[in-house]
Specification:
The complex is a heterodimer of chains A (654) and B (85).
Chain A (H helix, E strand, L loop, with lengths): L6 E9 L3 H11 L3 E3 L12 E2 L6 H18 L12 E2 H10 L1 H32 L18 E7 L10 E6 L6 E7 L3 H10 L3 E2 L9 H52 L5 E2 L3 E9 L3 H11 L5 E5 L8 E2 L10 H8 L10 H15 L3 H13 L7 H24 L1 E2 L2 E2 L24 H30 L2 H28 L13 E3 L2 E2 H20 L8 H9 L2 H30 L3 H41 L9 E2 L10 E2 L1
Parallel strand pairs in A: 4-18, 12-17
Antiparallel strand pairs in A: 1-10, 1-11, 2-10, 3-9, 5-7, 5-8, 6-7, 9-10, 13-14, 15-16
Helix pairs in contact in A: 1-7, 2-4, 2-6, 3-6, 4-6, 8-9, 8-11, 9-11, 9-16, 9-17, 10-11, 12-13, 12-15, 12-16, 13-14, 16-17
Chain B lengths: L10 H44 L4 H9 L2 H15 L1
Classes of the chains: A alpha+beta (654), B mainly alpha (85).
InterPro entries (chain A): V-ATPase_116kDa_su
Membrane topology (chain A): Multi-pass membrane protein
Function (chain A): Component of the A-type ATP synthase that produces ATP from ADP in the presence of a proton gradient across the membrane.
């Protein structure tokens, strides 16, 4: 909690004969993060990168085949339901026995489909080319085969006169009009010039016989027939997917594991007779991994724990209680924490839903979002999408909670007065007695900002202590304390000058000097001390001091964005119900019923839009407060992701 | 029409015009800051879409960068709310 998992650095060395056993054991444990070996040219002992195990290329090419079939059939391993794990031995025999036939079948289907599709395209093209000719009462064989005549066909803006002897057909029944001119070949150039001057665009004459319309009908029929055949093949491909989908993903998984295992030596260092690998294992799993390795290698192995030289090299794995795990996605989106710093995932997982709820505090919208997250669970079975969904679910529960406190349901009041401050704006004359307590809400959100930023600065001090050493650490800690002092100094000065509701009123304290009272003097001291503390680390940082005010005020969005969403809801209700539905209900007429239907539509569409806006506004603004206002105070990020060598078997079992 | 030169201004009229001016001020606060945010988000949004087209993993970060200038309009909204309520 609040820090990444402790890691140990292991060095494993063994004779080459044990390499398969060692790799298999490491892979099974799925805990060893391999540190890739980089060959150095000046090493005393000739050490080289290892060679892949025999069978690597076979497994890789089989895997490519499987992936190709999966691709063709549209199988996505993430979307396949896990019914039953298939034993690895069975999968291997399937790969040996059935895979070639299946591959042949799918390849044949695909080839046939692309051939049919090409034919279909060609027929469509022919029909399109013939289309203009259907407007001219000539058979297709009349267009070519002349010795002394030339045939000119093309689009033209309008019919024109031609001076030389000719035969001409014109039709405006097709798009762009069509003109056919038959002239003696000796006149061709002159006629062409006349036509081009009139905006003539030649079209190619298809090599066909018979009447154009009958040819078009012929091609259309062919296209239809091909379409039928293609959908037949698609059905057969779907059939392959249904029959073999599960086996295919199982083969995929097994072969992926085979390839990863076979290629592992590429990340090891090897000599003539031995191999060496370095890597990371979570501290609580070290002993078990060591034991298993010794047993697997029959004692012919040397394992030692190495000292960690550079803490930035340590891979980072989150260590959070299960309810906070989905928030890791929000952290990874920004940056993974460094190994040495405080991991704020736990705080994010608590504060993010609260902020979201404060912004979108409405039982109705919260319920819609909750149902949405449950509905979408089918589409996001694992990974980041799922984590985001769970984060949103928690946020929607917070939203419902705050909705009860604010007494809001799609902008309507629930049958009780708001338990905390009211957000019922006076729109359309339907406000409750008190109206919205905007000022109070804004001050509460500013308080949240002050506390959140103070927490950030305190974490900054902790981080400076953990991450830096000696003088640098002291300086960084002092600077963070300086920021904290500056902020509270400014606050004390404001409080001593103005009495603000819900904030301490320090205006009545005894005056000390220059019209400043006790609190103001303390404030000035804190402010000046703070500035000095900031400047001693980096003088340029002083220009950032105004951000103290803008960052604190930025938390006003918790109220402002929330109120804007309330205002939209109230306006929708007022337009739909107050202006359209209620007046018509008094005296029902035919037009009135229509207006009521429109009113209902406005109501539904409006609230749908407001839900979307609310999710976007609530989600983005609350995560933004974390990223921009909170994290910038202490968080560095940029840790290396812990990526253990191994795999969680979903479809197969050894 | 009321001739302000000669007609007496009643207290109600003054109050009503004050409320109206407040509403104008609130409108200006949201509208002008909205333009400011829009101008700021214009460049960021274009770059963000470009970055996302190059690399889909950028989407989350790009969305975040795009909403950073939102603060300006939120300050406008806060001012408007304080004026109105």
């Amino acid at each position: 909690m609040l820090r990444p998992e402790l890691m140990r650095r292991l060095l494993i060395a063994a004779p080459k004969g044990q390499i398969d056993a060692v790799i298999a054991t490491l892979y099974k444990h799925n805990a060893y993060h391999i540190e890739d070996f980089v060959a150095e040219s000046e090493a005393a002992v000739p050490v080289k990168i290892g060679m892949p195990r025999p069978g690597a290329s076979d497994a890789a090419s089989a895997l490519i085949k499987i992936r190709a079939i999966e691709n063709a059939c549209g199988i996505d391993p993430d979307e396949v339901e896990i019914k039953q794990k298939i034993p690895a031995a069975k999968v291997r025999s399937i790969i040996e026995r059935d895979l070639p036939a299946l591959q042949h079948e799918v390849e044949e289907l695909l080839a046939k489909r692309s051939r049919l599709e090409a034919n279909q395209k060609e027929s469509e093209q022919r029909a399109r080319e013939l289309e203009p000719f259907a407007a001219i009462p000539l058979d297709m064989e009349m267009y070519h085969g002349y010795e002394r005549f030339s045939v000119l066909v093309g689009h033209i803006p309008k019919d024109i006169q031609i001076a030389v002897p000719h035969e001409k057909y014109f039709s405006d029944k097709v798009a762009g009009n069509i003109v056919v001119v038959i002239v003696q070949s000796s006149d061709r150039e002159a006629v062409e010039r006349t036509l081009l001057d009139a905006g003539f665009q030649a079209v190619p004459i298809p090599e066909e016989t018979g009447s154009p319309q009958s040819r078009i009908d012929h091609y259309t029929k062919e296209v239809k027939q091909l379409e039928g055949e293609i959908s037949d093949i698609n059905r057969r491909i779907q059939d392959v997917k249904d029959r073999h989908g599960e086996t295919l993903v199982a083969c995929d998984e097994l072969l992926t594991a085979d390839v990863e295992r076979a290629e592992a030596p590429l990340r090891f260092a090897t000599t003539e007779e031995t191999f060496v690998t370095e890597g990371w294992v979570p501290a609580d799993g070290v002993e078990k991994v060591k034991e298993e390795l010794v047993r697997a290698a029959g004692g012919k192995i040397y394992i030692t724990e190495m000292e960690i030289e550079n803490l930035n090299d340590v891979p980072v794995e989150y260590q959070n209680p299960s309810f906070a795990k989905p928030s890791q996605m929000l952290m990874d989106l920004y940056s993974r924490p460094k190994y040495t710093e405080v991991d704020p995932t736990l705080m994010v997982s608590i504060v993010f839903p609260l902020f979201f709820g404060l912004i979108l505090g409405d039982v109705g919208y919260g319920l819609i979002l909750l149902l949405l997250t449950f509905g979408l669970r089918k589409f996001f079975k694992a990974g980041e999408g799922r984590q985001l969904l769970i984060s949103l679910r928690n946020a929607s529960i917070a939203s419902i909670g705050f909705g009860i406190l604010f007494s809001e349901f799609f902008g309507f009041a629930l049958p009780w007065e708001p338990i905390i401050y009211s957000r019922h704006l006076n729109i359309g004359g339907h406000a409750s007695e008190h109206g919205a307590q905007v000022a109070e809400l804004l001050i509460v959100s500013i308080w949240i900002g002050i506390l959140h930023i103070s927490l950030g600065r305190v974490l900054g001090i902790v981080n400076a202590r953990k991450m830096y050493h000696g003088k640098h650490a002291t300086k960084a800690m002092l600077a963070n304390a300086g920021w904290l002092g500056t902020m509270w100094g400014i606050l004390l000065m404001i409080w001593s000058l103005y009495a603000i509701p819900l904030m301490p009123d320090l205006t009545g304290l005894p005056m000390i000097a220059m019209g400043l009272n006790l609190a103001a003097v303390i404030g000035v001291v804190l402010l000046l001390g703070g500035i000095v503390a900031i400047a001693q680390e980096n003088a340029l940082e002083v220009v950032e001091i105004p951000t103290i005010i803008s960052h604190v005020l930025s938390y006003a969005r918790l109220t402002a964005v929330g109120l804007s969403s309330v205002a939209i809801a109230l306006v929708i209700n007022y337009i739909a119900i107050g202006m359209m539905i209620e007046p018509q209900l008094e005296e029902i007429t035919v037009v009135g019923v229509l207006i009521i239907i429109v009113g209902i539509l406005v109501f539904l569409l409006g609230h749908a839009l407001n839900t979307a806006l609310g999710i976007l506004g609530g989600g983005l603004n609350s995560i933004r407060l974390h990223y921009v206002e909170f994290f910038t105070k202490f968080y560095k990020g940029g840790g290396k992701k812990y990526d253990p060598f191994g795999m969680e078997q979903k479809f197969t079992e050894e | 029409m009321v001739d302000f030169g000669t007609a007496e201004l009643t207290l109600e009229m003054i109050q009503a015009s004050q409320v109206g001016l407040k509403a104008v001020g609130a409108g200006l606060a949201v509208g002008l800051t909205g333009i400011g945010t829009g101008v700021a988000e214009m460049g960021i949004g274009a770059a963000a879409v470009g970055a996302t087209a190059e690399n889909k993993d950028m989407f989350g970060l790009a969305l975040l960068f795009t909403v950073i200038p939102e603060t300006i309009v939120i300050f406008g909204l806060v001012v408007a709310l304080l004026l109105l309520f």
